[in-house]
Design a protein that fits this description.
Blueprint (H helix, E strand, L loop, with lengths): L1 E6 L1 H9 L4 E4 L9 E6 L5 E14 L1 H8 L7 H8 L5 E16 L1 H4 L9 E4 L1
Parallel strand pairs: 1-3
Antiparallel strand pairs: 1-6, 2-5, 3-4, 4-5
């Protein structure tokens, strides 16, 4: 199973360069997912590649930060503002990245395409 995930372009660049090895989320998949198809949000608005999941950490934001900070690709302030006062969160550890040779605009393939707020399952 795969999911389509909306990610800001600044973080997409860091994920594909290897600077960012974790993708943080407030909510996580209910099904078994092996990879993430990356939709780089506007202004890019393109599907740009795929991330393969090594594992997913579920813990308090404080514990997640302690475990992942050296490969987070973000500042502690940004991390804290993202999770706010939540008592739990998720860190998706990326094992492998594949950048598509030719990113594509999903609207050209499906005029009804709407970028997921968080994620959506795909076949």
């Amino acid at each position: 199973m795969k999911v389509l995930l909306s990610i800001k372009p600044e973080f997409v660049k860091k994920l594909f360069s290897g600077e960012k090895r974790y993708e943080y989320r407030k909510a996580i998949f209910k099904r078994e997912v092996e990879s993430i198809i990356v939709y780089s949000t506007k202004p890019e608005g393109m599907i740009v590649g795929e991330l393969f999941i090594e594992n997913i950490i579920n813990d308090t934001p404080e514990s997640i930060w302690c475990e992942t900070k050296t490969q987070s690709g973000i500042s502690h302030d940004y991390f804290q503002s993202y999770f706010g006062d939540r008592s739990e969160g998720y860190a998706i550890k990326i094992s492998k990245v594949i950048a598509y040779e030719e990113p594509y605009d999903p609207v050209q393939r499906d005029s009804n395409f709407k970028a997921p707020q968080s994620f959506c399952y795909v076949n």
